[in-house]
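User: Some background: our group keeps a shared notebook of sequences we're curious about, and every so often someone picks one and asks for a predicted structure to add to the entry. Today it's my turn. The entry only has the sequence so far, pasted here. Could you supply the structure so I can complete it?
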Amino acid sequence: MLALREVIRLTIYQWVARGLFERHKLIFMSQLTFRLMQKQILTVDYTDKEMYFLLNSPMKSDVPNPLRDWLPDSAWFVSQKLIELEGFESFASNMEKDYPTKFKEWYNNAAPEDEKLPGDWRSLEQRIFQKMLIVRVLRPDRITTCLSNFIEKTLPNGSNYTECDSTSSPFEILYSSYLDSTTTTPIYFILSPGANPLVEVRNLATKCGISLANVHNVALGDGQDVVAFNYLELGHNEGHWIFLQNIQLMPDFLKDLEKKLDLYA
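Assistant: Of course. Here's the predicted structure to add to the notebook entry:
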């Protein structure tokens, strides 16, 4: 049962992630992971206050920064809120008085999230969520990498999420999506400027034994909805493929398209 649940979870993640831009995939992975933590499906040692701190990075600016020669004021001010959390009370004083040189070295590291923290804080290697809070304080520029590492270690088979489709070519991803689709389930392409998947669609048709003469391309615009529906009727009756471009230009067309596909189902 657990294995089935994990397969379903990964499959749904993959379906959703393929409809997201790269910069949004980590947000979705984080939402998934944090929700599973909240429901205690994933066992992670953390508190609600720590989660709030990670998400909001609050500041307290009433204490001057004594480490200004290497530590930005913003990081020091956030550290003043971190010490209000249980277990972190001595963090700022340790950084200022006990291990300033070692903290500076850690701070200047190219990938500090992979390095052990100075002094007793090295024990957070076993509590990666809490270490992530310190990365959030001192090196917020590395928090996305740190968060990705956390997800990979926390989710079952986490690398399947963080590396999802990363080694697949656009054609391999399209072919996999095609295998998950049906004749009445359209495949939507959410494109970056300049991207054109028509070549890959034609290659897919060839792989699937569909003649390119039976792959019809319609660039939607004024009056082209009638043309598109004529081709859809042809595709439904004779098994042709219909490729609709610039569909965002005609949002009302989507309502009619949904009704038409319901009739075909």
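Suggested note for the entry: The radius of gyration is 26 Å. The mean pLDDT is 92.
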